Structure formats: C-alpha cells, structure tokens
Amino acid sequence: GENVEQHPSTLSVQEGDSAVIKCTYSDSASNYFPWYKQELGKRPQLIIDIRSNVGEKKDQRIAVTLNKTAKHFSLHITETQPEDSAVYFCAASTNNNNDMRFGAGTRLTVKP
Amino acid sequence: ETGVTQTPRHLVMGMTNKKSLKCEQHLGHNAMYWYKQSAKKPLELMFVYNFKEQTENNSVPSRFSPECPNSSHLFLHLHTLQPEDSALYLCASSQDLTATNYGYTFGSGTRLTVV
Q1: Cα(B35)–Cα(B79) distance, rounded to whole angstroms?
Q2: What is the spatial distance between Cα B51 and Cα B14, in angstroms, rounded to a whole number?
Q3: d(Cα A92, Cα B2) in Å, to the nearest integer?
Q4: Residue A36's beta-bridge partner residues?
Q5: How far apart are CA A93 and CA B103, in angstroms?
Q6: Cα-Cα end-to-end distance for chain A
Q7: A15-36: b or e for each residue (b if 16 or more CB lie within 10 Å)?
Q8: What is the structure's pLDDT at B58?
Q9: In this structure, how many other beta carbons lie within 10 angstroms of the beta carbon of residue A50?
Q10: Which of A31, A63, B25, B27 has its CA 20 to 30 A from that of B71?
Q11: CA distances (Å), A77 to each of A13, B20, B60, B79, in order?
Q12: Percent of chain B with pLDDT over 90
C-alpha cells in the first residue's frame, strides 16, 4: 500500500520568510495529492491539492509542486504570516479515496 | 461550521464502558470515513463507507465497531477500549470515493481519553 513520508516534522520561520514542506510517496499509481492545514484545536482543512497531470499549482501565497519521477511533492508558503502557524499534512491517493494516506504532519511556527 | 458535525467533542471513558461517537454531514456526500489522529503520527484510516456500505476496514480491532445507517450519519461504537486508544477521532466525508472531487471535509473530531 501507499506510504507517505513528510519532512520536516517541525519548522520555525520568521514572519515574511518562505516555508517549504516536502513529502514523498511510494505508490507510483498515486495521482492525487492534497494538503491540509490543521490549526490548534481545529479540524484539518484542505488548502490546496494537485493532480498528477500538472507539475505546479499556485493559490496566492501557497504553491504545490509535484515531481512524479522522483515521487515527491512539496508545499511552498511565501511571505509567511503568524496565522500560517499550524500543522500541515500532505496526503496521496489513487483514484480511490479508500487508499488516501497521510503524512505525519509538519508543525509550522511563524514568529512575528 | 463546514457541514460535518461530530459529537461529543470530548469523551472520557473507562476501559469497561461502552460509548458511541457520532458524525453527521449535510453536504450531500456519499462517502464517509473514520480516522484516528495520535500525536506525531500520520492520520490513520480506520473505516470507509460509500453509499452506506463499508468498503474498507483497515485492520481495526473489533473493540471499534462502525455503523452507517444512511449516507448522512456515521457512528463509531466503542467497548472495552485500552488506554492506547486515547486519541482524536476524526470523521470526514467526500462526494464519493473517486479523487476527482475536492478532497475531504473533516469534522472537528472527538478527543477520546480512556482511563
């Protein structure tokens, strides 16, 4: 089955800097890669996703890149703000949500 | 509220108790999921239901028993749990099982403590 590894487990940046979180996956059939943000005490929320037919997707300060050959994908947050502080989870699945697998999460802290 | 409601938010139970977690969604989704979230571990998929039918049981111990009476409601019945079962239990829903939708919508979770 799919195995998703996420690094780093914790990340601390200064406000205004960029943050990058990386994930690798094992199942070459995976073709859907969502990212979730979970603020303290709240539910995970989908912030961006990418499908295997594209290499990069942007939404304002957030971007995700996908390298299918190397089987890794990354979340990039630019101009970080304190409200970006949260735990971020990557996930990977094929066309069937039965096999959605999550990374262990990255705790991002943005220092004012 | 995002449309997926979980109750209770917090639950403390003894190892001999029987309790149930409830999840309700009003998004018109057909697939519902139970996940276990433990500290510093990946979200663990427990059960998947699609159109009320269970499609996945991810090697979950029988002390966890799911029930899906309709596409809008999902329960997790708990009995004779162990302290290591203490975790945040998250319910999620999606339009269906295909990934050509917009990902999951998660509930806020039930924080379970087994004493």
Answers
A1: 17
A2: 33
A3: 23
A4: A46, A89
A5: 10
A6: 41
A7: eeeebbbbbbbebeebbbbbbb
A8: 77
A9: 20
A10: A31
A11: 11, 39, 36, 43
A12: 66
Question: Which of A34, A43, A96 has its CB closest to that of B98?
Answer: A96
The minimum CA-CA distance between A17 and chain B, rounded to whole Å, is 25
User: Are B88 and B8 within 8 A, CB to CB?
Assistant: no
Comparing alpha-carbon positions, the chain A residue that sits nearest to B100 is: A95
| Chain centre distance of CA A106 | 9
Residue of B40, B41, B103 with shortest CB distance to A46: B103
Cβ under 8 Å to B: A residues 32-91 = 32, 34, 36, 42-46, 49, 51, 89, 91
Tens digit of pLDDT at every position of chain B (115 positions): 559 999 999 999 999 899 999 999 999 999 999 999 998 788 898 999 988 888 877 789 999 999 999 989 999 999 999 999 999 999 999 888 775 556 789 999 999 999 9
Tens-of-pLDDT digits for all 112 residues of chain A? Answer: 678 999 999 999 999 999 999 999 999 989 999 999 999 888 899 999 998 888 999 999 999 999 999 999 999 999 999 999 999 999 998 877 677 889 999 999 999 9
Query: Which residue has tokens 């002390």?
Result: B63
State the Cα angle at B42 between B30 and B22, rounded to 5°: 40
